[in-house]
Amino acid sequence: MIWRLALKVFYRNFLVWKRYYWMSFVEAVGEPILYFVAIGFGLGAVIGEIDGRPYIEFLSPALIATSIMFGSSLETTYGSFTRLKIEKVFQSIAVTPVSLREVIAGEILWGASKGLVSGIVMLLVVGSMGLVHSWMAIGVIPLLVLEALFFSSLGMMMTAYARDYSVFVVYITLGLESMFLFSGTFFPLSSLPAWAQGLAWSLPLTPIVSMARGLFDGAPPWSSAIGLLGIAAATALLVAGSMAKISRRLID
Amino acid sequence: MGYVVEARDLVKRFGSLTAVDHVSFQMGGGECVGFLGPNGAGKTTILRTLYGLARLTSGELSILGFRVPEQMREIKRRIGVVPQETTLDVDLTVMQNLAVYARYFDIPTETARERADELVSRFRLEEKANANLGSLSGGMKRRLLIARALINRPDLLILDEPTTGLDAQSRHLVWSHLEAQRSNGLAILLTTQHMEEAERLCGRILVIDSGRVIAEGSPQSLVREARVANLEQLFLKLTGTELRD
User: Fold this and answer.
1) Does A251 contact chain B (CB < 8 Å)?
2) Does residue B201 contact residue B190 with C-beta atoms inside 8 Å?
3) Using one digit for the tens of pLDDT, what is the confidence trace for A146-163?
4) pLDDT tens, B104-156?
5) The whole model's pTM is what?
6) Nearest to A94 among B14, B53, B77 (CB)
7) Residue of B44, B71, B87, B146 to mutate for A, most A C-beta atoms under 10 A
8) Which residues, at least 6 apart from A110, have a Cβ–Cβ distance to it below 8 Å?
9) Is it the case that residue B1 has pLDDT exceeding 60?
10) Is A97 close to B92, i.e. CB distance below 8 A?
C-alpha cells in the first residue's frame, strides 16, 4: 500500500523533471563526465598505474559511486526541502488519501532514482569504453541501488531537521565533499597514514567504492560486505526516522 | 445518513496554550457552517483536526460517519480541503495541478481529465489551462485551489478563509461558486473573518474566541437576539475591540 501511493508522489516529481529534463540531465551527468575526462585521462596519463591497472580503471567505479551520492543527496536536501518548506507540496498531498509517510517514501524513491540515473549513465560510458573486465560488474547494480537509497534517505533526514538551507551547505561541503575526496576514490587509502585510513573506513562511501572496484575487477572484497550491511540497516533507520520526524513537524 | 461532522468536546493544547477548548458542534448534510472569529481564535486549528494536520488532545470527532484519527484515509477520500495558504504546485501547469491531484485519489486518468476540463471551465480558467502557475493572478490561484478541492467530488468541502487577500471581483466570483456548490447539496464548512461572507454563505455561524464557541445560530437570529444592527456589531460586542495580532 505504502509503495503504491508513494509512486504517485514519485510520478508528480517525474512530471516536473520532464519539463526540465535537458537541464536535469546535464546536472546529473555533466560533472562526473568532466571529472572522468580531466582526472581519469588527463591526470591519469601522468599517474600511470595504480595497483597494477591504468588509473582510469581505478577511478571509474569510484566516479560512478560519487555521482550517485551527489545526485541522490542533492535531490532529497535542496529538492525535498524546497517542496516541504517553500512550495508546501508535502502539506497539499497530506490532506489527500496519500499520507505523509507515503509522501516521504515517494520522495526517497525519487531521490534514489535521480542518483541512479547519473550512476547508470556513467556505468554505460565506462562500460562502452572497455574499462570493465568482469561479468561480476553486473553485481554493481544492486550495490548502486543500495547506495542511492542510503544517500537519498540520509538527505531526507537532513531535510527533516533543516530550518533553512544553511545546514545543507555544511552537510554537502564537509560531509559529502570529504567522502568524495577521502573514500578511496582518487587515490588508494593505503597511501594515507594508518589513523587516517581508519577514519576513511568510517565514511559510508568507502565500502561502497571498495566493493564497486572489486566487482569491476572480478574480485569483490568481502570485508567491505560488513560495511554494506551497516549501510542497509542505517537506510532502514533513516527512512523510518525521517518519516517520524517530518510527521511530527507538519502535524500539530 | 447521519451527521457530516459530529464533534464532541474537542480539545487541542499546545503546551500550556489551549487552542481549542471543549468545542462541540454538529453539521448535517447540505449545510453551510461558518466559524467566525478574530485572529488566533482557534478556527484554523479546529479545521486542521478535521483533515488530520492536527492531533486532538481529547474529544471525539467523526466525519461522514468515519472516526478521527483511525479512519483518516477514508475521510480524506471524501472531503475537499482549501487551505489558507496557497499550496498549489508551482512547478506544474493548471491542468497538471488538477490531474496530479486526481491521482492522489485514485481517480482514473480519463475521468480526471473530464473533471479537470469541467472544473477549469466552471472556474473560468480555460485561458490559463496550460499556463504555468506563475502567470496566474491571486484570484485565479484561489479559484484553482477550490477547483482542485472538488476534483474528488467531495461530500464535505472545508475552506480556511477562502477569500482572504482577494479583490472584490474575485471575492464575489468565489462566493457565487460556493453558493452554486451549496445549492447542489454539498456540505461546506469554512472559517472567515469577513462578516459579509458569513452572512451570504452560511446558514449557521459559530462565533469562536479563545478556542471556545461563544455564540451559535443563523446570522439573522444572532443579530436579532443580540439587538444589534448587523453581524459586525455583534462580533465586536462578543469578542471586544482589543487588537488580537
Assistant:
1) yes
2) yes
3) 999 999 999 999 999 999
4) 999 999 999 999 999 999 999 999 999 999 899 988 999 999 999 999 999 99
5) 0.92
6) B53
7) B87
8) A9, A10, A13, A14, A75, A152
9) no
10) no
